[in-house]
Amino acid sequence: MRRALAALCGLSLTLAAAPALAQSNTADTPPTIPAAHADASVETTTIGDLIANAKTKAVLQQDMPELLTYDGLDQIKGMTMRDISKFPQANLDQARLTKIQKDFDAVPNP
Fold first, then answer.
1. Angle 94-106/54-63 helices, nearest 10 degrees?
2. Contact call for residues 55 and 37 (beta carbons, < 8 A)
3. Would you call 100 exposed, middle or buried from its count of C-beta atoms within 10 A (0-12, 13-18, 19+)?
4. What is the CA radius of gyration of the chain?
5. Count of CA atoms in the C-beta half-sphere (13 A) of 15
């Protein structure tokens, strides 16, 4: 009976200390901070990621405002600007892609 009680007390002490141990481990790990635009690219960054970032969204608002009001925007969020340039209705030629990329590159990193 004493052994069972001692084991139970030891278990409860271990469980009580677990949150403190978990906190000390997470305190050593710095939080993840997303980059401002993580080198936004018309080639590789999805439209969803571009729109989710205020700085790159501002570039799109300036260079291609019709994209932000497109009815099917939710359906193309997983695509890149290069991907949608293949569709004539996107009205997105190489010159326009180059201009958008140049403006992405001008967005300052923090």
1. 140
2. yes
3. buried
4. 25
5. 6
pTM summary value: 0.64
Which residue type does 11 have? L
Q: What is the DSSP string of 60-80?
A: HHHH-HHHHT-TTHHHHTTSB
Residue located via tokens 């949150």: 19
- Return the residue matching tokens 């997983």: 78
- Cα separation, 79 vs 87, whole angstroms: 12
How far are the Cα atoms of 2, 9, 85, 100 from residue 13, in angstroms, in the given order? Answer: 16, 6, 62, 59
* Per-residue model confidence as pLDDT tens digits over 35-83: 444 589 999 999 999 999 999 999 999 999 999 999 999 999 999 999 9
Side-chain-facing half-sphere of 107: CA atoms under 13 Å: 22
